[in-house]
Amino acid sequence: MEITRLKINGMMCPRGYSCDVLNVSWNVEHAKGKRAVMVKVEAAGDEGFENILFKREGQDLSCSGTRLELEFTPRTRYFVRVTVTDDQGDSAQGTTWFETGKMDEIWKADWIGTKQEDFFHPVLKKSFQTQRLAGIVKARLYICGVGVYEAYLNGKKVGDEVLAPFLNDYRFALQTQTYDVTDMIGGENDLEILLGNGWYKGRFGQSDETYGDRFAAIAELHLTYEDGTSDVIQTDESWVYRGSNIEDSGIYDGEILNRILWKNLENPWKSVEKLSEPQQIEMKELLTDRFSIPVLVKETLPVKDVILTPAGETVLDMGQNFTGWLVFRDVLPEGTRVHLEFGEVLQNGNFYNGNYRTATGGFTYVAGKRESQIESGEGKTEDVELVRPHFTFFGFRYVKVSGWPGKLDPEDFTGYVIYSDLERTGFLETSDAKINQLYSNCLWGQKSNFLDMPTDCPQRDERLGWTADAQVFSPTATYNMDTRAFYRKYLWDMRNVQTVMDGAVPAHLPAAEGMCPVCSVWGDAATFIPYTIWKFYAVPDEMEFLYPLMKEWVDYIAGQMQKQYGKNVGIWDFTFHFGDWLALDGPTEQSVKGGTPDGYLATVYYYQSASIVAEISGKLGKEKEQREYSRLAEEIKDCLLYEYFTPAGHLSVNTQAAYIVALKFGIYRDKEVLLKDFLDLLKRHQYRIKCGFVGAPLLCQVLSENGQSDLAYHFLFQEGFPSWLYAVNLGATTIWERWNSLLPDGTINGTEMNSLNHYSYGSVIEFLYAYAAGLRPKEAGFEHVIVAPCPNSRMRELKCTYLSPAGKYVVNWKLTGEGKVKMHLEVPFGCRALVTLPESRKETFEAEAGSYDYEYMPVHDYRQKYFENTPLCEVFADPEAKAVLLKCIPQAAVLDNPVDAEEELKVLYDRAFMGITAEDAKKAVGELEKIKLW
User: Which residues contact 817 (CB under 8 A, 6 or more apart)?
Assistant: First the structure.
């Protein structure tokens, strides 16, 4: 029996984070018992737990999150111990720790920077001695720098994080980071802070405005000795600065690292300046302990291929689109100027990055004799520097290398993959290589765009936290990775800006004042993402933290209704909305907006947001608000039914997205009527996707929720445009922004808004977890789940593992050669699963913690290839099936055309005018149903 995955607020051993409320979570593995009979959670100020500060015991303490109720002091480490005893009498114990930051402690340090006339990228330095080196037991660096900073102590980079202090709206907060530098302190010390453009300073976002125009930093190095005394090295006027070797930098504009920048120029150390009082005070007041989880180099990739293009370019193919850097060994003569340009796709075999718009600066390196390790960041490898950028990042698969002398050795180059430090929790593998690639594309899209904030894209001059993208993808993201702390930071950002927008939520974060629209679906991220967090993690404290954000968004919409209609309810069609963005049923397939009326979608999402607030109000014991928002939701629903549904239950908005959201959120007079109309519409659309950002992420899930999982698989496995596998067939390694970001010949489909690394349509992967594997929460938090797999003959095998907050679930199924279903199920300690074995005669049953295997012959033979509802085009595409059909009904050959072939097999029963009798049709369908897939 073992305690695993001990986390504080969803993080392993967090240091320096905001800690208004802390929850500890854990898993139990390898237990003989099924459930806990006693759980004890303790917190102490010492590792030996002699000074217990908090203790709680009970059988029902939640492993997803139990609150630690104790008074915290600044700059202090606390230890947490969890002890679990199971129903077999076995016990296990696990220990973790967390460490507070500065909290509300007054900063002794000052913000310092360069003199106003110096515009170069500076390095700030403080030299100091430690007289009692042997007596140091603890050394912590508390620091923030703007635009972006890296700290170095005695020539070595402090910590492994990059791009600090990260991406947030700097009008509201400046996050500080805490680093353990105990093992880096020497007798003689140099503490240096390298500063560059980015986030706070420099070109970023959709406005030329930046938060500030000055490089600046603030830091306190606290040294604690074994006798309890301490020293503080702080930023003040005793520090000095000079120009670094970074000639220029920017998130969009790349970086120039020039080792000979100062070769023939004076670059003396100068005294720093303290920021003036108004700015000094304002920036100190904005300092806060961090919310951002670490941004790290999480993986490395080798060069897959070196390409000499028809244009004579040398291009490195990394084999994978990703976010990060290309790092290389400096084997270059002094003065060599190497320029790296980054792209996602080749065009006519040549390098291309026109879809990056203005973010094409790349990375330039000028070699020289290295005087210091400070700009290498990686020290030496065999006395050869590893060269990398510092204050930018790129989204790319291909790298054009210019200026490299002689023959390029791919072994000198490595791709560094950068994203936030999220634990991967979801694992899927199927028997279909293309579906596996689609899953990989989704995962890499998430890695690429989860760099401190869920962004739309990692490559062009945008890279913003668009709220609708984050909203539609959040369930898939949370299956894939533990998103608790990551989304907490994003929603903290969202709440900050909401406080100055009267409850409104902008379409992206950060949002320049007056430059970002407020609209439905995008703004509804304020309720939908917290609801995802609730369904997956079920921690009431998190919902209390997020509740004002959720409530005030709904109140904002109600306020807009009051202004327009004099009441809280009406159709929200009087302001701008993006609508079903990039759908294919607009005026043209290239139109950015689909054909579903904005007012309909906006009001549907208003209803669902009000419903969510009502539900969460109830979970938090807010009975008055629960009644209020439940009533509001019902009134909005009545309004929708009156405006858009006939008395017989037909929906007047005849688009895919309209039906999908109505079914998803339960808005109908008669569900059967609505579902039939939806299926009829899909048939008229020849089962082709027409919906965009609103509809497509929900399409397969909604079909499965309504007994149409085979049709969901049909959409999943489509390969022509538009489909999820269209991009896979064209070599995509991430999810695209548009269904046809590339045309069938590989040509880029426009450059103004065309990212090849956009995760939104990857939301279909939720279908694989929740319906193909059949694993989804029955109750919030995954302690009680539904396991109801939906096998399909297109996929003979699926393996799913999910590390839920309650523990590891495994759902594997396989269709054997004999036609049997084999299923393996693992339910974690303390959990229950409501299990439905697909196509079995066994009724739904409860399974407790344990490992289970099932094998049986299904009621329906999954090997059967053709059914009455199979499209004729699939029959005509199969030589064996086509021969069977034409042998039974020769005149059916005339149906082999693009229009008639989209009809289903059962249409043969209605073709008496072609001379096809009912007996002939029945015989043909019967013979086709005998064809087996294997």
Answer: 934
Token pair in block for residue 838: 């697909």
pTM of the model: 0.96
- The CA R_g of the chain, rounded to the nearest whole Å, is 30
Cross-sheet strand order for the sheet of 807-815: 426-430, 797-804, 807-815, 821-827, 850-856
Distance, C-alpha 360 to centroid of its chain: 25
The span from the CA of 698 to the CA of 472, in Å, is 8
Kindly state the tokens that stand for 806: 């309650």
H or E stretch at 228: none
| Burial class for 313, CB neighbours closer than 10 Å (0-12, 13-18, 19+) | middle
Other Cβ atoms within 10 Å of 283 Cβ, number: 20
> Is pLDDT above 80 for 383?
no
Residue 139 has pLDDT above 50, yes or no: yes
Say yes or no to pLDDT of 208 above 80: no
DSSP H helices, 458-596, are 467-480, 484-498, 525-537, 540-565
Q: Tokens 């010492």 map to which residue? A: 46
The answer to whether the peptide bond before residue 828 is cis (omega within 30 degrees of 0) is no
- Asked if 528 and 477 touch (Cβ cutoff 8 Å), the reply is no
Q: Contact 886/872 with Cβ under 8 angstroms? A: no
Question: Mean pLDDT across the stretch 665-677?
Answer: 98
Closest by CA position to 749, among listed 614, 603, 590: 590
Q: Phi and psi at residue 279, in whole multiples of 5°?
A: -70, -35
Rounded to 5 degrees, what are φ and ψ at 702? Answer: -65, -40
Q: How many CB atoms within 10 Å of residue 682?
A: 21
Rounded to whole angstroms, the Cα distance separating 148 from 201 reads 8
Q: What is the distance between the alpha carbons of residues 138 and 224, in angstroms, rounded to a whole number?
A: 5
Q: Which amino acid is at 641?
A: L
- Could you report the per-residue pLDDT of 238-281, keeping only the tens digit for each? 999 999 999 999 999 999 999 999 999 999 999 999 999 899 99
In degrees, rounded to 5, the angle at the alpha carbon of residue 562 between the alpha carbons of residues 556 and 564 is 110
Give yes or no for a contact between 789 and 723, defined as CB atoms under 8 angstroms apart: no
- The two tokens of residue 912 are 């008496």
Residues 95, 79 contacting (CB under 8 angstroms): yes
